[in-house]
Model the fold of this input.
Amino acid sequence: RPDLFRVLLDDAGTIPPIQKEQAQEILRGEFPELGERFIVVHYRTADYNDLAGTSHSLASFLDFLIERTGMHVVFVSLSYLSSNDDRVAANEVVSSMRNRGAAHVVSRECEPQLTKAIIGLATFAVGVSHHFALFSLTMGIPTLCLYKNQYYLHKFSGLTNLFGHPNWLVRLEDLNTSTVIDRALDMINQSSR
Done:
């Protein structure tokens, strides 16, 4: 929603995505088996987000969504630092999944414009990062924002309230509850993609 950009304090919301067709071509080149509808995920473990040891919980949640919807999962990265490469954390989640054949990690280092375009192609988003949520929400993608500490609760509360979806905020410990699973399935079913 462009009218919201003027109140955002983070210019990441205004980064333009590359052309949709370019992003589709890149995704199809890396994952030819990917269908039109997919779930995009961002996962990172770092000292500041308290997510170490939570990959199994996310893996179980994603397995359930794959089995219920038939959609594949695509992990995108925002950090490629050797000390904090999101692809390492994503591969940790995938290695814990039953449905590894339906889970894909974008291997290339992507510019923010490409990452935002890939997110914009998804049906549903699940993530643990403020910038991932900002990208997906500005692209109009229903987004489940996962948090484990007060810092991220505060950041995600502001975003989800700003976009009019305060119930899209979920404590990681509650991820595999029937309430959250039902909410995610509703978000997927109501998605326009």
About this structure: The chain has eight helices and eight strands.
